[in-house]
Amino acid sequence: MSDRGLSRRQYLTTVGGTAVTLSVAGCSGDGGSGGDGGSEQTITAGTAPGFPPFEMKEGGELVGFDIDLLEAVVEQTDYSFEGWEEFEFDSLIPALTNNNIDVIAAGMTINEKRDDTIDFSDPYYSSDQAIVVRADGDFAPESLSDLADRPIGAQKGTTGEGVVQDELVGQEITESQYNAYDNYVLAIQDLENGNVDAVVIDVPVANTFAANRPVEVAFVYETGEKFGFGVRTDDDARQEALNAGLSTVREDGTYEELTQKWFGE
C-alpha cells in the first residue's frame, strides 16, 4: 500500500490544503477526557455498518476489513479487546470524545478538521471517491460538472458528502438536489429506485456495491485520502499501541491476507 510507513502527521503535512477542502462538516466534539488513567487496559471499538467491505452486517454478524484488521491489531498489543459498538457514521466522533468507545474503526478519512477534535493512528488504507450510477441507466457522467442539475446522494459526515458540499452544491446542484443518508446501503437503494441519479462513495465500497447490485462506477474523483483508526486526543498510549500493532500485522503478512480476503488485492 502507498501509505506504508507514513505517519499521521506526515500525511497531514503532505496533503495540506487538500485535506481542508475535503474536510467534512458536522464532525465535532468537546475533546473528551478519556485515556488510560491507570484503568484496566481495554479497548472498546465503534463502527458504522453499511460500508462494505469495511464494515457490514451479514446474518446479523458484524464483519468486514476494519473489523478483522482492528481485532488483529489489538491482538498484537497489551490491550484486551472488549467488543464493538455500532453507530451512525456522524455519531462516531461524539461517541469517542464522550468516552463511550475507545477507538473508531470505520473507514474514517484523516483530515485537518477531524484532527482538531480527535487523533488518528498511522494510515492503514488509501482511497479516492467514486461516482456510482445505475448500471441499466443512460446517465454516464465523466466529470463532476456532468452531475449538474441532478439529484445526488452521499452518506452524512463522510468525505463523499464533503465532495458534494464543496464541489457541487451551489455550483452544479442546489441544496435541495443533495440527498444525505445515514448509511450507504440506503443511498444505493435510492439510486436503484431512481430517487437519485448518482452517489458519491469511496472507491472500494463502490466496487463492492457494483459487484452485488445493478450499479456501476461512472468515474473516479481523486482525493488521495487515507483511513486511520480514531482515538481521543489525550490517549497517547492507545494510539502508540495501535501504531505498533499495525506495523506488526503488516510485517507478519496478516495485512496482506486481509486485503486479499476483502478486496482481492
TrEMBL record:
Every Solute-binding protein family 3/N-terminal domain range: 42-265
UniProt KW keywords: Signal
SMART domains: PBPb, PBPe
Cellular component, GO annotation: membrane
GO molecular function, one term: ligand-gated monoatomic ion channel activity
Annotated ranges, domain Ionotropic glutamate receptor C-terminal: 42-265
Gene3D superfamilies (UniProt xref): Periplasmic binding protein-like II
Superkingdom of this protein's organism: Archaea
Protein name per Swiss-Prot or TrEMBL: Basic amino acid ABC transporter substrate-binding protein
Record organism: Haloarcula rubra
